[in-house]
Amino acid sequence: MEALISEVVSDFFGREVRKVVGLYGDASYRRYFRVFLDDGTFIAMKMPEGASSVSEEITNYEGELGELPYINVARYLSSIGANVPKVISPLLRCGVLILEDLGDVLFYALADSAKGSGSSDRLAHIYLEAVGLLAWLKDRAVPSDGCIAFKRSFDERLLNWEFYHFLEYGVEARFGIEVPRTTKEEFVRITRLISSEISRMDYIFTHRDFQSRNLMQKDGRLYMLDFQDALLGPEVYDLVSLLRDSYVVLDSELVERLIREYASFRNLDPERIREEFYLITIQRKLKDAGRFVYIEKVKGNPAYLRYIAPSLLYVKDALEKVPRYSPLKGLLLDLLPEWRNDGVDK
User: pTM, whole model, 2 decimals?
Assistant: First the structure.
């Protein structure tokens, strides 16, 4: 693969590539490489032909975009002043796109280091910066006819699909069992009520995966990555992605503080934001738990299985804070060992 990347990038720049190094990629089908030329480095993103997630396929966008969603959303975000990697090339042969190299400082590494050092002040500081960036994005991201994000949304169909994806993979495929029909029916009934409630919230531009591994720091500023799935979604969906990140578990006191800070930045009712935060946590984190199993079963990558426990414990905690949906906890309790052996600070 490195030889192919070298050839494609060399053809584009018209000069020799010195070295190509594969980089760690997250759970998507895309692969990333750092390309070394005499005058600097670039990132090559390799898109596998025809690959997309099922959730991407069932979003309610209709029509032909005519370009990669990544390029489309990147152009829009750049136009409003957001820090994102510069797109250096058009989509090249073999599905290669050349991007600006932002370096190696992931927000995840900053957060993990702060947690590891026991510096609660430093951890709070970096998360306040990220929450501030998110609030800024919501303020600036006004609708645009040219951006695909404003032409698709988290409708009930997608929300319900993600809930059922959890039942299929987070329970049945994970444990090799078939959930009883009556349990499935009750799960569908309750989760469709949640989806209906979420779909009636105010919808705005939503990154869809605004978490610690999709933020980078360069020259003291945070940059956003992996935004190609942006769509219209609930106000606090991205806040849930950040503060209920499966990779970095924050204590409940800091989470509550950051929810209030976000509401203040956005001049919104903090109680409403808090209520919506925990309701969306139920949906988002069940989806994540199911997705981690899917990645292992379908893509052959078991690296994300260890993040199932914090994801499910976030859901358990959220159900305690949204008691009208507490029957879901009773329904799943016997199916989820994590809920019987609580081990994450909530």
Answer: 0.94
